[in-house]
Amino acid sequence: MGLIVHKANSRGYANHGWLKSFHTFSFAGYHNTERIHFGLLRVLNDDTVAAGMGFGKHPHDNMEIISIPLKGALAHKDSTGRSEIIKTNDVQIMGAGSGIAHSEMNASVSEEVNFLQIWVLPKKKNIEPRYEQKTFDPAKRVNQWQVIVSPEENNEGVWINQDAWFSLTRLKAETTLNYLQHLHSNGTYVFAIDGEVNVEGETLQARDGMGLLNTNEFSITALTDAELLVIEVPIN
After folding, report:
1. CATH code for 11-135?
2. Most CB atoms closer than 10 Å: which of 31, 71, 80, 122?
3. pTM of model > 0.90
């Protein structure tokens, strides 16, 4: 088994006043040759946007872009005419495909929004752009895996153009949960949203991340109440 540990305080950081952004992997002005990607997982940003502020309209292509609000709400608009509000417990995916432009604004004029924005390289390029969002019941991730992103049709998660799966869990202290990969050839990245856990002998605290390679199954034990995001992606 291969382990890659990324402590929260080792992430790249940008403070633009209205935006505070932590980068697990190289992004914008943060460039680290040892932190370009984990397999086809290219971006994992932990963004906090001030009230009434946000990202103006900008283009993307050939990238699967997932947004997961942790606190507050995002207002999304794109070049297809779609206008949506994404709240805590919602998951949004935008398949940029052959090209799409969108904006992401804090939906509140009084409170910050904190969200994870994650980019995964697509399986097929230049397909028609698409958008999907779903609301997930947090009770269904307590001490179990809740799949929120999946390549499988008719799955509970939003659909992704890649052999990738995202799962959330909220673990009670002293609970152990096993993760079994969907594809043996994939790798899995564990991101601790909150709390403290032990993953294969490594202790992860809030906002720490760890990649696991060359294994099909691993266990996570909660040292405190904890919330985790697990991202399983192709490595090659």
Report:
1. 2.60.120.10
2. 122
3. yes
